[in-house]
Amino acid sequence: MKLTTNTQVSVDGVMQGNGGRDPHLDPGFERGGWARPLFDSEAMTFVNEFYQRADAFLFGRRTYELFAGYWGVMDPGSSPIADALNTRPKYVASNTLTEPGWSDTAILSGDVAAGLRELKAAPGGELQVHGSGHLIRWLLANELVDEIILLVCPVIVGEGTRLFPESGPDLALDLVESRAFPQGITLQAYRPAGRPQYATD
Q1: Which of 64, 192, 57, 59 is nearest to 127 (CA)?
Q2: Residue at 88 is within a domain
Q3: What tens digit of pLDDT does each residue of 73-118 get?
Q4: Is residue 87 assigned to a domain?
Q5: Per-residue pLDDT at 135
Q6: What's the CATH code of the domain at 107?
Q7: Residue 70: inside a domain
Q8: What is the count of structural domains for the chain?
Q9: pLDDT averaged over the chain?
Q10: pLDDT score recorded for residue 186
Q11: Domain limits at 175?
Q12: Residue 63: how many CA atoms within 13 Å on its side-chain side?
C-alpha cells in the first residue's frame, strides 16, 4: 500500500487545533478553529473524496482517540468522512493503547517500523494518515512516507504546535500536484526525494 499523509497547516506551519477549540485536548490554546472557516465547497469535496479513496487508515494514539470519539460514533450515511473511517481497517501506532474502542482497529506496537513495512508491502491502494503530527515526523524519519499532502490555509496562527519542529532531519521533496481552492486554501502534494542539495559557493 502507498502511505500518504494529509495535513491541514497554517502558513506558519501550525497544525494544532485546526478544527476547533478543545480545552481538554489543547489546554491553554485559544486559537483553535482557524482552518474550518476557510473550507469552501470545493475544498470540502476534495477532503471527502480523499477519505473515500483510502483502503485503510493509520493514526497516532492521540488523533485516533479524537477521531474515534467524533467520527466513530456517527450513524451510517451521516458523512462521507465518517462512512470511510467506519467501514475501513484502522491501525494505531502506540505502545500504550491496549483496548481500541473503535471497530476494525489493530494496534501496531513494538517494532512499529517493521510492522508498517509489512503492511505497505501488502496488496492494496492507499494507507492514509490524517493529523497525527508526531507520527508523521516519525514516519518521515524512518522513510515510510510515499506522499505528503498539505492543505495550506491562508492564515498565520502565531502560536501552537507546528507540523515540523525548528530542528530536525532534512528532506528534499518533488512536487507532484498543486492547486488553489476559491477561499485561498492551496493543496500541495509532494513525494520524498532523499536529501536536499545545498549550494556550495
Answers
A1: 57
A2: yes
A3: 999 999 999 999 999 999 999 988 888 889 999 999 899 999 999 9
A4: yes
A5: 95
A6: 3.40.430.10
A7: yes
A8: 1
A9: 93
A10: 98
A11: 2-192
A12: 25
